Amino acid sequence: MKVSLFDYELPENLIAKFPVEPRDSAKLLVLNRKTGEIEHKIFRDIKNYLKPGDVLVINNTKVIPARLLGKFPTGGKVEIFLTRQIEKDIWEAIGKPGRRLKPGKKVIFDDELSCEILKIEDEGKRIIKFHSPKSTLEKIYEIGHVPLPPYIEREDTEEDKEEYQTVFAKEEGAVAAPTAGLHFTEELLKQLREKGIIIKEITLHVGLGTFRPVKVDEVEDHKMHYESFKIPEDTAKEIEKAKSEGRRVIAVGTTVVRTLESGFEKGGKVKILEGSTNLFIYPGYNFKVVDAIITNFHLPKSTLLMLVCAFAGREKVLNAYKEAVKHGYRFYSYGDAMFIY
């Protein structure tokens, strides 16, 4: 299957650079995946499409300020982008200038934080060890920058530390936000619970693969990065119960889709509660658990767009994207949302 089948035209001015306020005032495109019917709503209208007994699954991962700016002891700027914590002070990272980040090299961030490059792995990844009299994570929060996606094309601000985070974020470890969750407010979650919607959490730490473009011509040749996930036991039991009773499981975001489809067998039986996944979902995939998806509008030729096309059909999705462009929807991480049922 050609990657070019997942391309579309997007005017530059529709790439969202900042979020809307309040969060639940974003636009919502509602797509019926059977009929292809499209409705235009506001995100807070999502409550009218959810039914008592639906299980709404959210990703509680928390974005860390993973972009660190430092220098070599001899001078020269360095940028380190943390991708995954391995042990207490040992992290996987990428960095630039790559040619100078060799094993044994030291990088200084401030008077209290430095790191040493331990080794180089495949695809330019570095294993680094931090040195600090304080807690490393505390220092990262103090001096790190929010790793905004490159297409936002601006430096991060203090506001981004809060805005590029869901209201239910609590498990530290992501380098990108699970962006479909950004549209929820505490008030909207309260209204959903009052209506009888069952809200359950999973954790998948969004990794570097989120930023990784598809560089092959054939979809099947692309390899996904592994990302760690956890499905709490109460979430698993609730999903099993819902599937056995014919109630819907609704995923908030592609990270939740990949976690649930990795963790459950056909018919909604638990397969694994904790592990890592490199599951690549593209058209032809048979969904085992997820009945509906809340998601954002994704980059052309991206694995996220392929996942959505697998769920609702490529033609229906690309037609919905055309409609979204026509109606001035805002795209990507800080953009508007879509509900596919």
User: What structural category do the secondary elements indicate?
Assistant: alpha/beta
Query: Helical proportion?
Result: 10-25%
Strand content: 25-35%
Euclidean distance between termini CA atoms: 25 Å
Low-confidence stretches: none
Describe this structure in words.
- The protein is of the alpha/beta class.
- It contains seven helices and 19 strands.
- It has a nine-stranded mixed beta sheet with strand order 2-1-19-18-14-3-12-13-17. The protein has a six-stranded antiparallel beta sheet with strand order 5-6-7-10-9-8, covered by helices on one side. The chain has a two-stranded parallel ribbon with strand order 4-11.
- Helix 6 crosses helix 7.
- The chain is globular.
- The two termini are 25 Å apart.
- The mean pLDDT is 94.
Keywords, please?
19 strands, 20% helix, six-stranded antiparallel sheet, nine-stranded mixed sheet
Could you provide a short overview of the structure?
The protein has 341 residues and is an alpha/beta fold. It has helices spanning 136-143, 160-163, 186-195, 233-245, 254-263, 303-312, 314-326; strands spanning 27-31, 38-42, 55-59, 61-63, 67-71, 77-85, 90-96, 106-110, 113-120, 126-131, 171-174, 198-204, 227-230, 249-252, 264-265, 269-270, 274-277, 292-296, 337-340.
Q: How are the elements arranged and paired?
A:
Layout: E1 27-31, E2 38-42, E3 55-59, E4 61-63, E5 67-71, E6 77-85, E7 90-96, E8 106-110, E9 113-120, E10 126-131, H1 136-143, H2 160-163, E11 171-174, H3 186-195, E12 198-204, E13 227-230, H4 233-245, E14 249-252, H5 254-263, E15 264-265, E16 269-270, E17 274-277, E18 292-296, H6 303-312, H7 314-326, E19 337-340
Parallel strand pairs: 1-19, 3-12, 3-14, 4-11, 14-18
Antiparallel strand pairs: 1-2, 5-6, 6-7, 7-10, 8-9, 9-10, 12-13, 13-17, 15-16, 18-19
Helix pairs in contact: 6-7
